[in-house]
Amino acid sequence: MKFMFPLDDDCPASLRKAFFDAIDNTTVRTLADEVARASAALFGEHGRLAEIRQAVLLSEATGQSVIEMLRARIDDLRSQREGMQRAVADLQSFATEQRQRVQDDLNRCTSLMINGPSRMDSLRAKVRNYAQSRETMATKLRGAGLSDDDIQRTGVKPTPDDLAAWHSEIADIELGMRRAVAFIASGPLYDVGLLSGASHVA
Known about the structure:
The protein is an all-alpha fold. The protein has two domains: about 10-100, no CATH class; about 105-195. The protein contains seven helices and no strands. It starts with 12 loop residues before the first helix and ends in a 17-residue tail after the last helix.
């Protein structure tokens, strides 16, 4: 597998997910930064001694000079740094490609996150005012000369079906928003399965 194994086609899906889950974990990132700082401090303070020691051992083992060993070490470290820079660029390209792959889904999720709350507020207001709205409508019909029996036969709006539909739509939007949040958070792999069954997103 490649050094940046999550981008390898042969990388198991579970291992790829574990890598991106780790990157997304605040505690993991904090500890990794601390490790990097501790490593930099160690080599900043004692790197010369450690590198000379290793160069002498390698010189004895290979027959090359200590200077040659140190120059080879410098070349190796520079190569590693360039490799890491390429790996970071590859990760960024991968994330961009994944976003483009699900851009339509992301757009729908973003739209729902923006418009969902106001739509739910509107529906909840209708639910709160349901009884009053029905009474207001009945009063108007009485004022128009209809009897209570006439009103009963004609029906008053909003109807119980309207009320049930409002409750259902609120529940659908709430579900859709939860799934939208989870889907966005699942990047850069973006688990589209999280959107299934959410009518306001899918």
